[in-house]
Structure prediction request, 254 residues.
Amino acid sequence: MEASVFEGVEVSSRDMPMDEQLARRARRRFRLLLDGGSLALFAIFLVRLLPVLLEINPTDSTWQGDFVDAVVNQGLIAYLGFVMLHVASFIQPSNDRLRRRLRFVRRLAVLAVVGYVLTVGLQLSSTIGEFTSAQSNKAKYLDQGARLSEIRESLQGASSVQDLNVRLQSLLQPGLTAEQLNQPLPQLRKSLLKQNDLDQQRLNNLITKNLEDVNSFGSVISRIGSALGWAFAFAAGAVPWGSHSTLVERTRRR
Prediction:
């Protein structure tokens, strides 16, 4: 049974006007909705990060990019939970349990701010790693492409099956099999040129995919900007241990 004290006299909720009782019940229900919703959103945020965290590999540029992408994309969920907890505490400021939870979450928000700032460095590291890997793969694919061109020229320029066999071995390619040595040159040339075309097509696909795997400049800037934005958003409500002011308030005073 709720009660309040007014001018030193304890007043039972039953003695309150019906409108005030209904307003209290509505505020309590709304507070419970916000309180429970904030906990659910925090849980959803962690669950959505779990797949990336289970595959943790901080030195891998691909994992770094996936982690930054997940943290940035799910930031709205965590921030909504953060805001909902503030609103719930504002609606019922006398709820001690809710106030303690809000203080605890505002302390944890400092870690969120630091984490989002660190993701900027993680994104830069991921971008550099992806670019270096792409450049290495590009050089390898170009070398393979040059080798395929040399093989194609040997196939087209051979005057006999034996000449073709010698040309292939000079390019450090496997020699012709006994079955191939017994085939007519036109037929053998046609089949080997067809295989060369297929190898070139596969190589072209690898070159295209290699370029697609590198994040565009706009995508990198978008991730970095989003990470800094979420860092500022949480800083507006984050309170360091031993302080009563948010990080934004402390920064403005300096």
